[in-house]
């Protein structure tokens, strides 16, 4: 499978995917990394992997449509089978998603449908939940929605802050994202309405 990764920041999930591609766990090749943030740390990571980097600075475009069209045109030559959003902080429009139906996967640091959106880990701490975690899901136009592929749970401790919980969730994000993308690239997943099947084999 031909993979393109979208990231906006540190890129630790992108790094986990790259490592899994390199060691043969994920049957794919990473064709490019797209980022909306010039100077993001994920750029240097991608360059160290020898992966082409596409920087689309949202401020350089006079509309979301132009921003997305630039990205669509830039990644078209890679003929991606899968787009992995790994800490990508932009919402993709229905039109963009329609170009890659059921081929865009995202990881969110909460047990969806709880705690959609930003600061999900902080939302969990504030809500006083005792279990938190991460969700890997197919991307649909609704934010942090879409058919769930895998979830992993971590305990929330009484003295947790957003940062201590985020660090604990992050340790589960990497293997969970790798397993989900591995299953996708091995064509093990089917989508039945809102239910993804093939993850428990
Ligand atoms: C991760 O916690 C991910 O779940 C969220 O943003 C963070 C990105 O971290 N969407 P990184 O850039 O992958 O290290």
From TrEMBL:
(6R)-10-formyltetrahydrofolate binds at residues 64, 89-92, 106. SUPFAM superfamilies: Formyltransferase. Pathway: Purine metabolism; IMP biosynthesis via de novo pathway; N(2)-formyl-N(1)-(5-phospho-D-ribosyl)glycinamide from N(1)-(5-phospho-D-ribosyl)glycinamide (10-formyl THF route): step 1/1. The keyword Zinc does not apply. The record marks 144 as: Raises pKa of active site His. It holds the Pfam family Formyl_trans_N. The active site is at 108 (proton donor). Signal peptide: none annotated. Keywords: Purine biosynthesis, Transferase. InterPro entries: Formyl_transf_N (IPR002376), Formyl_transf_N_sf (IPR036477), GART (IPR004607). Residues 1-181 form the Formyl transferase N-terminal domain. GO terms for biological process: 'de novo' IMP biosynthetic process. NCBIfam families: PurN (TIGR00639). Belongs to the GART family. Catalyzes the transfer of a formyl group from 10-formyltetrahydrofolate to 5-phospho-ribosyl-glycinamide (GAR), producing 5-phospho-ribosyl-N-formylglycinamide (FGAR) and tetrahydrofolate. PANTHER family: PHOSPHORIBOSYLGLYCINAMIDE FORMYLTRANSFERASE. This is Phosphoribosylglycinamide formyltransferase. It comes from Megasphaera hexanoica. The gene is purN.
């Amino acid at each position: 499978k031909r993979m393109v990764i979208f990231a906006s920041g540190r890129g630790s999930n992108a790094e986990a995917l790259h490592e899994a591609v390199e060691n043969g766990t994920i049957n794919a090749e990473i064709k490019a990394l797209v980022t909306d943030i010039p100077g993001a740390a994920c750029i240097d990571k991608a360059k160290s992997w020898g992966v082409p980097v596409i920087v689309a600075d949202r401020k350089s475009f006079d509309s979301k449509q132009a921003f997305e069209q630039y990205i669509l045109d830039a990644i078209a030559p890679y003929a991606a089978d899968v787009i992995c959003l790994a800490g990508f902080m932009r919402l993709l429009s229905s039109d963009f998603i329609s170009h890659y139906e059921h081929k865009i996967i995202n990881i969110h640091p909460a047990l969806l449908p709880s705690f959609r959106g930003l600061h999900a880990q902080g939302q969990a701490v504030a809500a006083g939940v005792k279990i938190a975690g991460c969700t890997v899901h197919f991307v649909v136009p609704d934010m942090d929605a879409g058919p769930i592929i895998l979830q992993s749970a971590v305990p929330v401790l009484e003295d947790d802050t957003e940062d201590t919980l985020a660090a604990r969730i992050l340790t589960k994000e990497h293997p969970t994202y790798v397993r989900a993308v591995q299953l996708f690239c091995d064509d093990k997943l089917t989508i039945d309405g809102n239910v993804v099947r093939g993850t428990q084999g």
